[in-house]
Model the fold of this input.
Amino acid sequence: MSKFGKIALYAVIAFSAMAAGFFFKAQQLTPQLSSDEKKRGIEKFFSSGLPDVRGDMQPFSQWQGNVLLVNFWATWCAPCQEEIPEFIQAQETYRDKGLVLIGIAVDQPDRVASFSRDFGINYPVVVGELDAFSLAEAMGNPQGALPFTVILNRAGEIVYSHLGRIKIEEIEKIIKPLL
Done:
């Protein structure tokens, strides 16, 4: 192998190791909120709202009493794009049992509207831009990283939060007992 080939190989290995490290670190960064912090985060969530892709304000309080899966995402986020088809599937499967997914996009409204149409998103999507980061922080994501998912029970309590891509199997383990 040539000298350039070896350098390229080492660079690829180093980059792969760094990427894997960042990925696994992100998986472990979801902080555990105290019960008071959870309560304040939920109060902030249910007392606020954001506009949907048509610009109509959607108060989060309208979904109280349901099992909620709240997902902070962006159109440019690759892990977000990977999990959205599974969210669509979960919404379709569990809608009649009381599950409501809420997508909170940290993005521009026109991009979110186009993306939502192209993907066939079947759950409420609101656009938060910078306001969404404040809400995500209150719900347990001080890093502001995406995607970030929070699951609330019917009583409106945070029962689970996850930083990074989440898979349908993990979602189902958490929501089935709550429905």
About this structure: The longest helix spans residues 3-28.
